[in-house]
Amino acid sequence: MTRSDPYPLLFLDIDGPLIPFGGAGYPTYPLAGDTGGNPLLDRLDPALGPRLAALPCELVWATTWGADANPLVGRRLGLPELLVTDLPDDSPGPVEDLPGPPDLPGPGPGRLHWKTRCLVARAAGRAFAWVDDEITSEDRAWVAANHPTPALLHRVDPVTGLTDRDFTVLEEWLRRHGS
Which of 13, 63, 69, 142 has the fewest Cβ atoms within 10 angstroms? Predict the structure, then answer.
């Protein structure tokens, strides 16, 4: 069940964690209704919904799907209407420069995911977990230095999406840091 304060937030990306990509031979699931033109929605495993809803947290979308996340993904998973994090419309791609040498290739040293600052601001001091397929050590270091409460930045392999192991990590962390 989706919960609010004092439970930690769980910021959830869609492409990669919920809809795997980049590999071959994915299981597919029947689709009904509007797909928004997304040819990968049939990879969305409906069994993920009850598992996410059972986590001791407040689920929040953190995805470029924006307002489409609830009708196109959340409903298919059986989730209630979730809050959607306001992300910049003009995302610079997966990374942005941190102060420092401007010639660093990204992602890597000196590079920060473009969502990182937005999610820390949205958390507003609450403990949070973030599930995404583009998280790096730079994001973890920046959050540790700029967020006053516990945060778990959990990178999911986009080829497999969320696995049992990922759910175990999330469940243990959320139980440890929930009130």
Answer: 142
